[in-house]
């Protein structure tokens, strides 16, 4: 009987096929050959997540019934008493996704069927165009449009604001310096060029990456309104979300937010006050498919759509989870996509495929994805102290990356 199948073991698979350290959880069950995969990736603090799973979450879940996803998620969130933080949330996300994968395999259905079935055949995706100047950004947008993309995120010089003209105080520490003034001035020129080059033939997105002070953010949202963005991402830091009310009062630039969220309180307030337009949590950070499902249905009542976080620091298992939610969610908006190379497809058979700007799920049971553990082991995670997140304002003040 399915209800009697229990969790026998939890394995953590870590790998770094490209730049980012990935963490995948494998739940092995009492049913021979039956296992599930989940993504627990927190690339900058991966050792902490591995320890959380092996030392705390595994002893908590081993022996429990695989069928009880809802109960497991609720209990895992409170079992450590302190909750809603990074690391433990990642560990729980991995377990939650793996249990949905197992339930799908037992039902012989893809996870999107368990959620209620498809609202669409594929998920519209966006990818990232960058460049050193507005012309190069436009060239890269054109390349993606030729591949069939209808949504493109436009950035210039990474998250921007790097300027040669940045006099620093004598003796300033090294770091990834940026100038918020230079950032907004340059981005407005870039958006002007890209929008005037393509007209309305493409949806444009942009990520501020919380690099502005709150009042400067309000000004920027107002200034970019004329470029009719599909959305402006992380205009404000989670610590400054009350400022979104002021943004709403001065413009109708659509806002997207959520990749840094840990606590349901953070998205609940934004949804019920209609202060954002797109939710974009990191499913491997918020607790997994179970809380994502809750947030989707809650947001749907308020006309708010989804745009889950989907860069290279989400494992292919996490991307598969995003995609199952995307094809089901009534209020799906768009999906971020990082264009994995062939090696990743070989390491994770079933990694979502993209054709002409749409990402298609397969019809395999569960999340429809597997991992070649021998190949993953050939690309072990490396340890570094992150440099790009050692960001500073021109006078040396530590700033958000
Ligand atoms: Mg972002």
Describe this entry's structure for a reader:
With 401 residues, the chain is an alpha/beta fold. The chain has a domain at 114-364: Alpha-Beta Barrel (TIM Barrel), CATH 3.20.20.120. 37% of the residues lie in helices and 15% in strands. The protein is built from 14 helices and 15 strands. It has helices at 46-61, 69-79, 88-107, 111-115, 134-146, 180-198, 214-223, 244-250, 264-272, 283-286, 289-300, 316-328, 342-347, 373-377, and strands at residues 7-15, 22-29, 35-39, 123-129, 151-154, 176-177, 203-207, 231-233, 255-257, 278-279, 305-306, 335-336, 353-355, 358-360, 391-392. Strands 4, 5, 7, 8, 9, 10, 11, 12, 13 and 14 form a ten-stranded mixed beta sheet that branches. The chain has a three-stranded antiparallel beta sheet with strand order 1-2-3. It has a two-stranded parallel ribbon with strand order 6-15. Strand 7 (203-207), helix 7 (214-223) and strand 8 (231-233) form a beta-alpha-beta unit. Helix 1 (46-61) packs across helix 3, helix 2 runs antiparallel to helix 3 and helix 9 packs parallel to helix 11 (289-300). The N and C termini lie far apart (50 Å). The model has no long low-confidence stretch (mean pLDDT 97). Bound molecules: magnesium ion (MG). Magnesium ion binds at residues 207, 233-234, 259.
